[in-house]
Amino acid sequence: MRGTLSDRMGAALLMAPLLLFLILAYAWPFLGVVKWSFTLPTPGLGQYHALLTDELVQSVFIRTLRIAAIVTVVSVTAAYAITVVWVRGSPVQRVLAEFCILVPFWISVLTRAFGWVALLSNRGLINTWLQSIGFISEPLTLVRNEFGVIVGMSHFLIPFAVFPLASAMRSLDERVLLAARGLGSSRMRTFWTVFVPMTRSGIIGSALITFVFSLGFFVTPAILGGGRSVMIAELIYLRIFQSPDWGLGAAISVVLVVFVGALMALLFRYVKPKQLV
Amino acid sequence: MQQPGRAAEIKANGIGKSFGSFRALDNLTLDIGRGEFLTLLGPSGSGKTTFLMILAGFVQPSEGKLFSDGVDITHRPAEQRAAGMVFQGYALFPHMSVEQNIAFPLKVRKKSASEIKSRVGEMVERVGLRGHEKKLPSQLSGGQQQRVALARALVFEPGVLLLDEPFSALDKSLRGQMQAEMKRLHQETGTTFVFVTHDQSEALALSSRVAIFNHGKLLQVGRPDEVYDRPANRFVAEFLGEINMLPVKGVRPADNGATGLCEDRAVNMRCKAEAIKGDAILAIRPEDMSIAPEASVNQNGIAATAIASTYLGAATKLDLTTRQGAKVTVSVPNEVAAAALSNGNSVWLTWPAEKGFLLPDGGQ
């Protein structure tokens, strides 16, 4: 939409408070972090060099990417199924799906993480139930490891993965699906060869959002990982708050922000912002 | 390329469809012959599209039965009916190339790669899309997309091709071109075509038979000239083209037809009046009426006053009012119209006895 000059002035004025807040609360402090990464403890590229050689940092990076990738696949798959029901189900199914999508937004991330601990821990609901029916004798390790982190993060991210998919499914022309059936294609085949490819932009948007969110997760991995499955955000926290290694923490932060920025740029090449809500 | 054996013969028997309290289609019985080009014509909401969707299998009828070549297919799902369908807006697969779109129904039918290749190639040739095979639908013009839709619907040699207002998105010149092309494809494939439109000139130009719908009811089926010249009722008469309605009093059978009083003058009609006695409506197409300088005893005619004229190039359309206030439109040669208007606008309207038909007074 291209408005007149005064329209654009109006829009700029309306956006100004948010922009100002973002500059003061995020951009300016972040420049400070960038500065630390080049100056602490001594000026130079030392921390970036350490980042490339430090095995612990590298293993955390790799674990973070791995968890983010698995969480993305799990979340987008689950979200796809829910969204199909939400957008194309019967009226009752739609209401149920909407409930499942919206309720998680009302519960804090912390509450949900502890909820999963109660379900997944050695003496949690799942293990005691499985033991009581004699399915297992020793409790399964479901939490304080990567599995628990993946479960908790996926649960948190599924609702976010839903919206780009719903937007793609809603804009799909119903007649194209009818056409496929009329040409002899079974429902299954129509779903895989027509419906899924036609929602491609939604899948890309959904996957990138989930992946980017996963990279910066802190609370869920900290609680459900139990210190054994440390991700990037927790590592930064440990470097800054529990060791005097501010420079390295800052360098990791900068790398994370640049990486996420690059992913977001990629995201907006594939999907328009309005398709994400 | 005539393949009449493949064309399907369809029988609809007492088909009805209700959506809640809305009666979309009521007790429809219709035979569609092998290889015929049948047009379903009617205003929007008349039930023509509902019937097409029932034929395709996308909509289940509330009652009645549907037979294809004598087999009951009422409850057969769309994907097993093997009817080709061209949708309004084409409904091409946007993520597939022209070639892939056309190959889709063959792939579904698990044809061999070599057969798919040769049949797609043949179809691309036939609809004139050579050179566009690798393009996506979004890279094609409206007319080209239309051709892809036709090719995709015909490539698996369906027994029947269903077309839902396929030309509504095209401009007028392209429309004419596509109509000609569709007629050619019908002749080449010999398949049964069922075509939905609300454009009566399109229906008359293309079809071997026209079925006219209104308010969920099938009103009349017949050859284009039959429904145009002898409409079953007033709605059909008016829907198929402009028509003049003149009240006639005291209709009774006479030699060779019927006779009655129109605006206090005796008029003769060649049409039969068995069912109609007393007061009726005489319906005459504008092109069947002409203007004479003065009354003639041997010819049907009434006095009228010209109130407006519209120059149409090849002819002039004159709007007139009769002495008793009926509105009449005639299409006459330009010089006749000019003469009529220069003569104080008072004219004599005439028509031959064999033109026009009688409809019950006031009724539908």
From TrEMBL, chain A:
InterPro entries in the cross-refs: MetI-like, MetI-like_sf
SUPFAM superfamilies assigned to the protein according to its UniProt record, in alphabetical order: MetI-like
Alphabetically ordered keywords of this record: Cell membrane, Membrane, Transmembrane, Transmembrane helix, Transport
Pfam name, any one: BPD_transp_1
Domain of life: Bacteria
A cellular-component GO term for this protein: plasma membrane
Localization per record: Cell membrane
Membrane-crossing residue ranges in chain numbering: 67-87, 99-119, 147-166, 203-226, 246-268
GO biological process, one term: transmembrane transport
UniProt-recorded name of the protein: ABC transporter permease
From TrEMBL, chain B:
Pfam family, one: ABC_tran
Gene3D superfamilies the UniProt entry points to: 2.40.50.100, P-loop containing nucleotide triphosphate hydrolases
GO CC annotation, single: ATP-binding cassette (ABC) transporter complex
SUPFAM superfamilies: MOP-like, P-loop containing nucleoside triphosphate hydrolases
GO biological process: quaternary ammonium group transport
Keyword Ribosomal protein in record: no
Protein's UniProt keywords contain Nucleotide-binding: yes
Keywords: ATP-binding, Nucleotide-binding, Transport
ABC transporter domain mapped to chain residues: 10-240
Domain of life: Bacteria
Gene Ontology MF: a single term: transmembrane transporter activity
Family: Belongs to the ABC transporter superfamily.
Record-given protein name: ABC transporter ATP-binding protein
